[in-house]
Amino acid sequence: MSEKRVYLFGNGKAEGNATMRERLGGKGANLAEMNLIGVPVPPGFTITTDCCNEYYEVGQEKIISLLNDEVMAAVKNIETLMNSKFGDAQNPLLVSVRSGARASMPGMMDTILNLGLNDEVAEGMTKKTGNPHFVYDSYRRFVQMYGDVVLEMKPVNKEDRDPFEEIIEKVKERRGITLDKDMSVEELKDLVRLFKEAIKERTGKDFPDDPIEQLWGAVCAVFRSWMNERAILYRKMEGIPDEWGTAVSVMAMVFGNMGETSATGVCFSRDAGNGENLFNGEYLVNAQGEDVVAGIRTPQQITKIGSQRWAERAGVSEEERVANYPSMEETMPEIYKELDELQNKLEQHYHDMQDMEFTVQEGKLWFLQTRNGKRTGTAMVKIAIDLLHEGMIDEKTAIMRCEPQKLDELLHPVFDKKALMNAKVITQGLPASPGAACGQIVFHADDAKAWHEDGRKVVMVRVETSPEDLAGMAAAEGILTARGGMTSHAAVVARGMGKCCVSGAGGINVDYKSKTVEIDGVVYKEGEYISLNGSTGQVYAGEVPTKAAELSGDFKELMDLCNKYTKLLVRTNADTPHDARVAREFGAQGIGLTRTEHMFFEDKKIIAMREMILSENVEGREKALAKLLPYQKADFKGILEAMDGLPVNIRLLDPPLHEFVPHDNAGQEIMAKEMGVDITTIKHRVDSLAENNPMLGHRGCRLGITFPEITAMQTRAILGAACELKKEGKNPMPEIMVPLIGTYHELKQQKDIIYATAKQVFAEYGIEVEYEVGTMIEIPRAALTADLIAKEAQYFSFGTNDLTQMTFGYSRDDIASFLPVYLDKKILKVDPFQVLDQEGVGRLIKYAVKEGRDARPGLRCGICGEHGGEPSSVKFCAKIGMDYASCSPFRVPIARLAAAQAAIEE
Ligand code: PEP
Ligand code: MG
């Protein structure tokens, strides 16, 4: 026997159940399940998701012949249960045809209602119901939907209005009415005729009168809607594979538009916005499902309390509310009671917040759908913790119920939802650092700082940022760059600061000279307002108000639960005491990476740094470094103190020196003055630092090897700070990390300098501090020779930004130019700088962890690239047995949740 393609349900029986989402789609599986638990559902059947894939393989004709016998038998079954007949003029059965994939994709695919109508059936139904208005309203809706979805009746030009709506407008104009419901039966009949004529004219196709032909047309159209543009885009955003396909559920129609005792609505067992345990929803009397979502008529509240709250917000008095906007609870108390009981039953059954659709036909309640409701980040946490307290789920389930990435919403400022509805998107970049920002455009870091000090809110717009822009970035509400990917300077630094950033917005043209930015033909000047959504990458014109996030007690409870189950620790990447404290509050268990270079840009440090760079010999450099030493020591002391009692991993100088010198004339003039030399000397030196490929050039440990005095100074600063703290009774736990190691000889050489310096420092302070020396693994050769390197290193920290860059050979700052094409052509599934490439880069990491630990048992391994805060990458790290992941402070909770989930999944 060939495999089963169609599953029946109805009258409290079903061939499928809730566990069969993969084959029946979420909707089909839940329709079956609702039957099994005694929730009233119109009878029907579900065609499996496999058939959708088959449709794309074998085509329409073949799939119909494969399905024919099963579908015809299934239609018979509905006829028997409904005691009516498909296509029968006396006693007709109408059906709805609905899409439903494994994962919920609300509104992305197509649905057809009232299928089975033709002129003859309409006449018969009129006789039977005595309600011609209802029949012809249903009929014209059907022709409209069918024409739209199945016969693909589209406007000629994109700007044109929907052709059916145009016809409706004309008919209404003729009569001088504005509302659909005021149309007479004759006008509705006219609409049916005009719609059919328009279809014929526009598509060359006759509207099919045969209900069976209608049915097949609709089923195949639902299959096709799996590949419509918005469904494809939604899948891309949500990471839903194209191979899943959609199921098709066919159900007997029940009618919410049969008069004042009929209604249709959507409801939620809890509040999807804030998570409050309050049944809520909206409904319309005498309407069909699409009217509620279409927003043509304003729906009313289901519960009295919901209605009262709505009235309060809308400024409507209680008297007026009761008279004009009563709730279902007040107007249909019997139905309401049943609805409330059943929604409760469904939540109890699924142990999660339900999002349900229902219809009331002449006083009888039917459920058409239930699913686990989509919710905001705040609601997600509250509902998980509430369900745990209510004993509905256990601790592990509560943790698994929360999506790590969604915690982001709780941690950053967000746009005011209402304001966003009127905001205009002017361009799109990468969602480099989440949150919302709104401010006046500035182009230079100095201006950002000055304007900020004046009390103005600014958004800094740059082609790209460099370490020189740090102060400006700190002062800005958000950062927008034209170039750079998810690990570009702007993105990494902004995430570290918890600051909103949109990077790589290729559609913007920045002109520093005229202080303007051109976006899509419009020129925005310095001082004009602009708003950024760092969570979506969208840029808005003007001022879109934002509001701060709040961390609730539920959030803390969730985090405590995570600690109970996790094996992977979470540290933070932090360069300042402030960031360290923020991260510690979020639960970071140490610092996994302190990038020392950022410190050089503050105050007078940059002058000493530049003096060092300008020096031509060791003596000169040492003199300059001696000036830097107290600054560095103070910085390290601050960070070690903020993380007292927890490990702090400080990395030696990493970026190429040219990042510390000015490249424009004005800056070079200032530098010349600071250094007391002429500008040509500066220009020469700056030119001599230029490299063809700076990311592979004179940076990382190569600096410490060519200028060992830098390594010595930084070691002195780190351990000096630690000694002072220890003398003050604190418990500093420094780790010194050597970057960009490719061969173990490099590490050995640097380690010798560190050890020798440490000895001197301890002698000077008359006290010793425990410390460790480890290395970054961020060059493929280092990963491949991890056994040799482990002999020299007390720990490994995987720098997956550089490791990804060098494994793929993609420049981390230039990926934006080709990434969209790569994603589009499916050469890459995701940006590898955002989501760790487990197949390639991950394989190197796994190998290096194993080889490293074989050579040095118990070798501590962590990750400190940007992937350390990305949930799937964190789970990978947990799975391969890393000790910790380190990420920017605002991602610490996300990583903690992902780590706990990884432990539970195991
Ligand atoms: C890395 O390469 O992953 C890393 C953490 O270092 P940076 O981003 O500073 O190069
Ligand atoms: Mg690196």
Automatic annotation (TrEMBL):
It is an enzyme of class 2 (transferase). Keywords: ATP-binding, Kinase, Magnesium, Metal-binding, Nucleotide-binding, Pyruvate, Transferase. It catalyses: pyruvate + phosphate + ATP = phosphoenolpyruvate + AMP + diphosphate + H(+). The active site is at H489, C864. Residues 457-537 form the PEP-utilising enzyme mobile domain. Mg(2+) binds at E778, D802. GO terms for molecular function: ATP binding; kinase activity; metal ion binding; pyruvate, phosphate dikinase activity. Residues 22-388 form the Pyruvate phosphate dikinase AMP/ATP-binding domain. InterPro entries: ATP_grasp_subdomain_1, PEP-util_enz_mobile_dom, PEP_util_AS, PEP_util_C, PEP_util_CS, Phosphohistidine_dom_sf, PPDK_AMP/ATP-bd, Pyruvate_phosphate_dikinase. It holds the Pfam family PEP-utilizers_C. The keyword ATP-binding applies. Residues 552-902 form the PEP-utilising enzyme C-terminal domain. Its cofactor is Mg(2+). Its EC number is 2.7.9.1. Substrate binds at R595, R651, E778, G799, T800, N801, D802. It comes from the Bacteria. Belongs to the PEP-utilizing enzyme family. PANTHER family: PHOSPHOENOLPYRUVATE DIKINASE-RELATED (PTHR22931), PYRUVATE, PHOSPHATE DIKINASE 1, CHLOROPLASTIC (PTHR22931:SF9). Catalyzes the reversible phosphorylation of pyruvate and phosphate. This is Pyruvate, phosphate dikinase.
